Amino acid sequence: MNLKGIFTLLMLILILSFVNGNSQTLNKVLVHGFGAWGAGITNGNEYLNANEDGDFDVLRLALNLSSNPYENLRLNSQFELHGEEGQTEIEIDYAFAEWAFSDAFKFRIGRVKHPFGIYSEIYDVGTVRPFFELPQGVYGPTEMVAEGYQGIGFSGTTYQLNDWGILYDVYTGEINLDSDEPWEEQDTTNIMVEDESENAIVFGGRLTFEPGVEGLSFGFSAFYGNKELEENDDNTSEKKDLTIVGIHGEYNLEDLVFRGEYVMKNDNNEVEKANSAYLEASYRITENWQAAFLYDYSKSDINDLESENSSLAKHTDIAIGLNHWFNQNFVLKLSYHMVDGNRFTMSDGEELEEKTNMISFGSQFSF
Amino acid sequence: MKKLVLILVILVVAFTNLLTAQEYKIIVNKSNSVSSLTSEEISRYFLKKVTKWEDGSEVFPIDLPESDKVRKEFTKEVLGKSSIAAIKAYWQKQIFAGRMSPPEQKSKDSEIIDFVKENDGAIGYVSASASTGSVKVVKIKND
Prior knowledge:
The structure holds two protein chains of two kinds.
Chain A: H1 3-16, E1 29-42, E2 55-70, E3 73-84, E4 87-102, E5 105-113, H2 136-139, E6 148-161, E7 164-179, E8 196-210, E9 216-231, E10 237-252, E11 256-267, E12 272-284, E13 289-302, E14 314-327, E15 330-340, E16 355-366
Antiparallel strand pairs in A: 1-2, 1-16, 2-3, 3-4, 4-5, 5-6, 6-7, 7-8, 8-9, 9-10, 10-11, 11-12, 12-13, 13-14, 14-15, 15-16
Chain B: H1 2-20, E1 24-28, E2 36-38, H2 39-46, E3 60-63, H3 69-77, H4 84-96, E4 104-105, H5 109-118, E5 122-127, E6 136-141
Parallel strand pairs in B: 2-6, 3-4, 3-5
Antiparallel strand pairs in B: 1-5, 1-6
């Protein structure tokens, strides 16, 4: 069933949920949403939708609908509108049904957010993180994390083991992985790399532990993906196997929050092996003002690259930020990024500089 | 002199207890067999980390409005968060990940009590002075 079919089916079920239901708390469609507007300017290269002339076009809006038509059945859908560079796209972020046999065993089917690491399921929600955009080493176009998978999954939580909380997700299906490979262009002048999205069949999971220390959680994520590359003239095609493994940790003391992840990518074609990591810290100076710091790193080993130390395979972003929270639903964010490497930067038509500085400003909200 | 010291001690203890007196009561439906819960257990019900009672029936937590003084006290002492903002951040992650929705809210004690009275699996909290004859008050035991 394609996405349109899944969407139609779920809309029908949502409508039917108004007919059935046997509790005050059931039979309601809950509406939430989030949005963002951002602008950025760099000192040369393009990075994160910012360029030398200043880009004021980053615009996102999402609508989230959920319903509990029956006690164990939950229906979820989320639609996003993206507006960048004068183009507007609407996409189904997710649309799935979940049947809860128990807290420890839930079945999900449809298009589901990819459960990987800390941020994959809340990819575009700006009010749950300190910076406007996510760390690119892990969450950029690296084939490490997808926004969703189409398939089936199992999920659950348990607090039976010495008061430790254990949360798990296991899934299989088709996943869409964004990637770009700037090293395909050896000439660093006028590189304009197009993002590519490729589908892969995957099997993966995530395990998160809450060890009973207030605010502390850590865990592991992994998936194995298999995707077909271009078809050959003799109707055979090559397959690319991807293995992605990551660890994540968070220590949330409300005013002071630390988050970090390390992800490793391996592909059997040995085109690219990559290691990415980030450490993010934020501190509420007052109830409304927050300071933030980011160290983001990525290094790829590319077979095709002549030089191991090519800037096309490296990325470091050291960023500081200052945010004003009107309340938890609405925030203004200002950040300054010092980027070294061109893994995620693009030329603006001139020679590609190894270093890029960027100022980013924007607002994000949720309801 | 000793009597005076004793009276002073009693007064100080009484005054301290007055200052730290719990400003809320935890209530459940009268058909619920639970008579006491730890803060951790109550917290898990309200954060929907646990959604079933021990008998397998559904838990229905019910909240007061964010601006309510009793809710702020409950958030601090039972949920262990110094502000409602921290709880909102938690619920934003759950909502947009497609996992859970926050508990329903009622605007005042009487509506909370009515909801708990009418729903077998409901659990709520009201101000300490609320009249709770139609529901069961649950003790908070040490963790």
